[in-house]
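As a warm-up, study this chain.
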Amino acid sequence: MRMRYVAVALVLATTPVRSFAQTTGRAFTTQDALDVRAARISDVTEDGHWLAVTVQTRRDRSNVDHGRFGDPTYLAPSYGELIVIDAETGAQRSLFTERVQVREPTWSPNGDRLAFFKREGDAFGLYVHDVASNRTRAIRVRSDRSLSSASPLVWSPDGTSVLVTLRPSGWAEEARAAFLQLTEGPVVVQDGRDDFLDWERVRNLDRRQIPAMVSLRDGSVREVLPETPLQDGRFTTDGTQLVYTTAAPKRTSYERGQGTEYAAYRVTVAGGEPSVVVQPSERRRELVWNDGATAVAWAERGNILVRWLDADSAVTLTEAYREPVSDTDTTKLSFTVELWRQDGDALLVRSQRGLHVLDARGAGLSLAMPFEGTEEERPRIEPVAWSQDGNTLFLTTSARDRWERGLLRRDLSTGTTESLVADEAVYADWHVSEDGGRIVYRMSDGDRPDELYAADLSFRDVRRLTDLNPQLGEVALARTELVDYLDVDGNRLYGILYYPRGWEPGRPYPLVAEIYETFFDNGYNENMNLVTAQGWFGFRPSVHLEVGYPGEAWLKGVTAGINALIERGLVDEKRVGVYGQSYGGYAVNLLITQTDRFAAAVNVSGKVNIVSFLGDSPRIATRNYNAAEEGQDRIGATLWEQPQKYIAHSAVMFADRIETPLLLLSGEQDWNVPATNQREMYYALRRLGKEVVWVNYMKGGHGAGRASSPEDFTDHWSRMFVWFSEHFDEATRARTTADGGR
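Now compare it with the structure written out below.
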C-alpha cells in the first residue's frame, strides 16, 4: 500500500513562551469543538529521528454504541490519522488517505519499520510500514485464530517477527452469547454463590488470549504459550526468552487488592514450559522489567525487591535504609520504583527524602536528588529518562503555586541541576533519545491546542513540527489565568479562570463554573471555550475534600472562589451558573441543596442518590461500592456501617431545599450513571413544584449529548447555553425591578 508524502517546512522557534489567546475574533462553536485536531505521540525511535503520531478529532470518536458497553466483541469507533514525522526535517507522511482506526504503533528495534494494528471491519489486521521504501503492507497472519483486539505488539530483537495475542477458537461466539444472555435473556439468573458477578465474568472474557509469534516475512504463526492473561511481554536481548506478567482474576472481591493474582514468568521462545519469576499473589504489584529483561523490580510494603533471572529468588534491597524520615518525623522511609538505568544494573527509586540510585545487586543506595521543602511547597518532579552513560537524569518539573513547568537535567556526577526549559507553557509526551541529543514533546501555550516540537539538548534549536489547527487562527479562544483563594476553612486553593470573548475591563460579566475536584493546569479546554464564546467567564474552581464529609467541600470551596472574582469586579454576582459532569454533576446537585446563590445549574450524567447508585450500574461490577466506601465518593464506610452518611450525600433526599432552576442531561445508554438515577431527581422536583427540565439522549452514554452523535453534541451545548441565558436574563430583570425600574 502506497502512502501519501507531505513535505512540511520547518518552523523554528526559541524556547516556547506563552502568548495570550485573542479575545476578539469569531466565536468558538460546537462545530469547531468537533473538528479540533489533537495529536498523540505513540512511539519514537531510539535515536529520536522518527515519530509515530496519531491525530484525532472529537468527531472521529462519535456515534459509539454505548448499549454494547461490556460486550467483549464490540469495537467502539475511534478513527483518525496515522502519520510519521521526521524530527530532523519536519517532513510528515500520512500512511493512509482515509481515516483509519489503529492500535499500538511500534517502531522496530533499529527504527527502520513501524508495525501497527489497523481495523478491518470488526477485527484488526497487522501492518508494517517501511521508512526507506515509503510503503505500507498488510501482513497476512496465517492462523485460523483472529488477532485479539487487546493484543500487545512487541518486536523481536532481530526485527524478523512480532509478539501478538490471538483469540481461542470459538471465542467470539462465546463472548457475544454471554453478553446477549445478560442483556436479552430471555431469562437472566444471577447466583451469589458463583465466584464472579456475571458482568465481571463477561468482562473477563477479554483476557482470554494466546501469545504467538508472527513472522513478518511470510505471516507464519507459532504459538508460544497456551491461553494466558499475558501483560507486559518482552524479550531478553538475545531473543531466546520471553518474560511477561499476568493478572489472573480468581473471584469478585469488594475489597481493593483482592480477587486477582499477579505474577511474572519467563518461557523459552523455542518452546517449553514457563517458569515462575515472581510467585502469584493477590497483593497488587507494579512489576517493572529492566531493558534487557534480565531482572524485574517492584515495591512491597515500603521496600524494593528485585528478582534476577539468574537467581533463585527475589532479594529485598532497601530494608537497611528504612530509617526515620527526619528527627521530627519518625515515619520510616518508604521506597517506590521509578525506572531502570539503561544498563539494567541500577534503579531510580523514590522516598520521602528524594530520588535515589539503588544498585540492583544490593551494593548500595545513594541520594541522587534531594527534595527541598515540604511536599505541599516543592515542585512536582517526575523522571522521564536516564542517559545511556548513566550520568544524567531528565525530569519534568511543575510548580504547585504558579504556572511554571518544564524539563530539568540532573548531573549525577556533580549533583547539579540545570533547567532546560521552564515557563508557563503546558508540556506532555516527553521523549528523550537514547543518546540524549534530541527531545520531542507536545506543548500548548496554555490556551491553544497542543502542537508537537523537537529540540536539541540546549533548547536553543526548537522546531515546531505540526500546525494542526490553522482554522482556529480567526477564532477567539479563551485566555486563562490561575487564581488562588482561601476556602472557609482557610485552605489555600487554586482555580482556572477563562476570559470571555470580547472581554473589556471595568464591567462585571456572567460566570459559569464547571466543578469536579481539583483543577490547576490550564491548556486548551473545549468546555470552557464554548462557555466563554457566549460572552461569559468560565471558571474551574478547586475544592478540599474530606473523607466522611465530602458534601461540604463544594459549598466551602466553590463559593469562596467565585466570591474572590466578584470582589475583583470581574463577575456579576446575580448572573452566576454552575454545572458539572459525572462526579461534577453529583457535586452540582449536592451544592444547590445547600445554597440558592446560583441563577441556574446543570447536572450532566451525575448521580443524585448514592444508595440506589450502589447497584444500578451492573456493567461496572463492584466499582460503585468501592467508590462510596473507599474511593472517589469518600463516604469512608459501608451503607450498613454509616447509613446516615449515604443519606446525607444523596441530593434527592433534600430536593425540597433546592431553589435553583435545574437542567438534568443524561444518556439512555449510560453504563456508568444510568438515566434512572437522574430521573429520581426529576420526579422529586416535579412533585415539589420546583423548576426542573430533564433531557435524556437516547443514543447518549456517560456525558449525555457529549457522548453521542455530532448532532446530539450540538444540541447538548445549545440547551445548556439557552438554560443559563434565560436565567441570567431573569436575574437582570429581577434586579432592574428591585432597583426601581432603572
